[in-house]
Amino acid sequence: MRRVALLGATGSIGRQAIEIVAARPELELCALQSGSTPLDALAAAHGVDHAQVGGDPIALLERAEPDVVLNAVVGFAGVQTTLWALEHGVTLALANKESLVAAGELAVRAWRRGGGLLLPVDSEHSALWQCLEGRAPETVAGLVLTASGGPFRGKARAELADVTASDALSHPTWSMGPKITVDSATLANKGLELIEARWLFDVPYERIEVVVHPTSVVHALVRLRDGALLAHLGLPDMRVPISFALTHPERATTPVPQLDLIGLDLAFEAPDTDVFPLLGLARAAAEHGGTAPCAYNAANEVAVAAFLEGRIGFLDIPVIVEETLSRVDGAVARDLADLVAADAEARRLAARGLQPA
Ligand SMILES: NC(=O)c1ccc[n+]([C@@H]2O[C@H](COP(=O)([O-])OP(=O)(O)OC[C@H]3O[C@@H](n4cnc5c(N)ncnc54)[C@H](OP(=O)(O)O)[C@@H]3O)[C@@H](O)[C@H]2O)c1
Questions:
Q1: Could you report the per-residue pLDDT of 141-160, keeping only the tens digit for each?
Q2: pLDDT tens for residues 287-311?
Q3: What count of other Cβ atoms lies within 10 Å of the Cβ of residue 225?
Q4: Which of 161, 225, 295, 333 is deepest in the core (most CB within 10 A)?
Q5: Distance of alpha carbon 165 from alpha carbon 151, whole angstroms
Q6: Which of 12, 101, 340, 343 gets mutated to test ligand 1 (max ligand atoms within 8 A of its CB)?
Q7: Does the Cβ of 38 fall within 6 Å of ligand 1?
Q8: Counting runs of H as helices and runs of E as strands, what totals does the chain give?
């Protein structure tokens, strides 16, 4: 029996994870957490003793003693849990990419000390992990992340000036929570994933490519040094990577149908980094290192929340992130307190950018 603590239980990933756990006799939920949504009914329905709305996630995890922590919280709010699980060698199934983006170096050091497993839930990274499994690092020439391109693929800048939150939330291929859906529309999501991939797989940024693949059937590819490419294909359905992380190294059955190969559209194109500058800004923050990725993430969170509330336009999101990045020092964080301070400072600067001039 594998005891799963599910943080972010009421979200898009959280709900799909509950479906996967409920269908597997070898999995059991031992803890649930949400940000503000009540959990009483959910906890009662699944016989979970440790359920908590908000509050300290570490106290919850210490009480529940899980075998696996599934971190499906959205945003920097997930950082403490990621660091705790890695430090304590508790298997971490990670959907909360923002924590690895913000805390990269601290997280990798905690992971080494803790010696546990870090299993990606993000579909592209789950795909990369599977293509890389058992392969000698020197045989890997590079990683390729695929992006759907989001609802605004192919649009000119001028066409994006007046798009609304509801336009941005109509994702063509994936059904996800609101923050990541907007991140997919701006390509910030691929920027976050670039940084996530670097820390998960220890591959330098210059060997991680991003390509647009509108049907989202190929989740990622690995380039090998002999010229071969390994691809991971499947329907765009998060229940597959969630199930793989929770049942690893087994591959349990899921309710997801098999992909029909006949007539499959496998087209790829280059991302438009002029219209969607957040991908290039992520690469620049990544290459700067230190707390620049943390600041990128914090400013993006502030800007996306403001866009979802209708306070700023779609094209203002990268402007706020760029201005914030130009004002932070990006110094290295020695510990979580430094990181929390860098996150808070970037949020303060980004919020200033929301004020009317
Ligand atoms: N959705 C996807 O298909 C997908 C795919 C790949 C990766 N991811 C990643 O998975 C994570 C979750 O995404 P999502 O789409 O599932 O988001 P979501 O639907 O917005 O759900 C977010 C979850 O986090 C909880 N939460 C928010 N703030 C919190 C806080 N301060 N403390 C504790 N819990 C908090 C929410 O609780 P409340 O209900 O109380 O607000 C909710 O349960 C993100 O990092 C995202 O990038 C998602």
A1: 999 999 999 999 999 999 99
A2: 999 999 999 999 999 999 999 999 9
A3: 11
A4: 295
A5: 11
A6: 12
A7: no
A8: 14, 10
